[in-house]
């Protein structure tokens, strides 16, 4: 992969007592150069994560971004991302990377929700592509992807992971989200999630 290829990594940070989760997007080149940031927030326990990530990508307005990475699929206490609609909206491949083994979210969703809130989350969760185990730099990550073949998704994750197991766009986005969340906690403000 060419060193100038860019990916938008999106990660979150939230405090258990907060009503909103901070999302940060970081544009990072394959050669580890960060050259853009965008911030927003979604509702803890809500259903607006997908539209918030779309709004972040729209607000960033970077045609040079080739891939969108997201850390996991259930930010902000099961505010599930819908990867296929996200891919359609941002018009580029979407990769969800998680870092721990898991038996899945269904039992946790059943414990946390009921009625329509449960059913809508189960529908979103069951529509996700399967997680695939991927070895990266002697570490294991789990990848869901939409918009590219499994083998290509593995190549993309490895290309953006020069060391360890966390792709650089997600590492930088996580640092930015934590810093922004700390600032929000001190300042008491929120990020505008509108386009």
Description:
- This protein has 195 residues and is α/β, with parallel strands linked by helices.
- The protein has a single domain (6-184), classed as 2-Layer Sandwich (archaeoglobus fulgidus dsm 4304 fold).
- It has seven helices and seven strands; from the N terminus they run βββαβααβααββαα.
- Strand 6 (132-136) and strand 7 form a beta hairpin.
- The mean pLDDT is 94.
- InterPro entries: Endo_dU.
- This is UPF0215 protein C450_03172.
- Belongs to the UPF0215 family.
- Pfam families: Endo_dU.
Task: Describe how the helices and strands are arranged.
Elements: E1 6-13, E2 20-29, E3 34-43, H1 49-60, E4 65-71, H2 75-78, H3 83-90, E5 94-98, H4 106-112, H5 115-126, E6 132-136, E7 139-146, H6 150-159, H7 168-187
Parallel strand pairs: 1-4, 4-5
Antiparallel strand pairs: 1-2, 2-3, 5-7, 6-7
Number of domains: 1
Beta-strand content estimate: 25-35%
Low-confidence parts, pLDDT < 50 over ≥5 residues? Answer: none
The first-level CATH class is given as Alpha Beta
Helix segment tally:
7
Which class of secondary structure composition applies to the elements?
alpha/beta
Rounded radius of gyration (Å): 16 Å
Q: What's the CATH topology name?
A: archaeoglobus fulgidus dsm 4304 fold
What is the overall pLDDT average?
94
Tertiary shape: globular
Strands side by side in the biggest sheet: 3-2-1-4-5-7-6
Q: CATH homologous superfamily - what is it?
A: archaeoglobus fulgidus dsm 4304 superfamily
Pfam family, one: Endo_dU
Protein name: UPF0215 protein C450_03172
Family: Belongs to the UPF0215 family.
Organism: Halococcus salifodinae DSM 8989
């Amino acid at each position: 992969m060419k060193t100038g290829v860019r990916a938008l990594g999106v990660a979150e940070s939230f405090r258990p007592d907060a009503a909103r989760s901070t999302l940060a997007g970081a544009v990072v080149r394959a050669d580890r150069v960060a050259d853009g940031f965008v911030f927003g927030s979604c509702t803890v326990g809500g259903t607006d994560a997908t539209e918030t990530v779309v709004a972040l990508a729209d607000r960033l307005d970077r045609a040079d971004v080739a891939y969108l990475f997201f850390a996991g699929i259930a930010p902000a206490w099961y505010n599930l991302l819908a990867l296929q609609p996200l891919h359609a909206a941002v018009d580029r491949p979407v990769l969800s990377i998680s870092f721990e083994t898991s038996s899945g979210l269904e039992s946790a969703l059943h414990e946390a929700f009921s009625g329509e809130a449960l059913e809508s989350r189960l529908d979103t969760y069951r529509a996700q592509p399967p997680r695939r185990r991927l070895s990266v730099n002697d570490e294991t990550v789990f990848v869901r992807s939409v918009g590219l073949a499994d083998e290509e998704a593995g190549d993309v994750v490895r290309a953006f992971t020069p060391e360890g197991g966390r792709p650089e766009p997600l590492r930088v986005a996580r640092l930015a989200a934590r810093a922004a969340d700390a600032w929000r906690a001190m300042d008491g403000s929120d990020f505008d999630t509108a386009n």
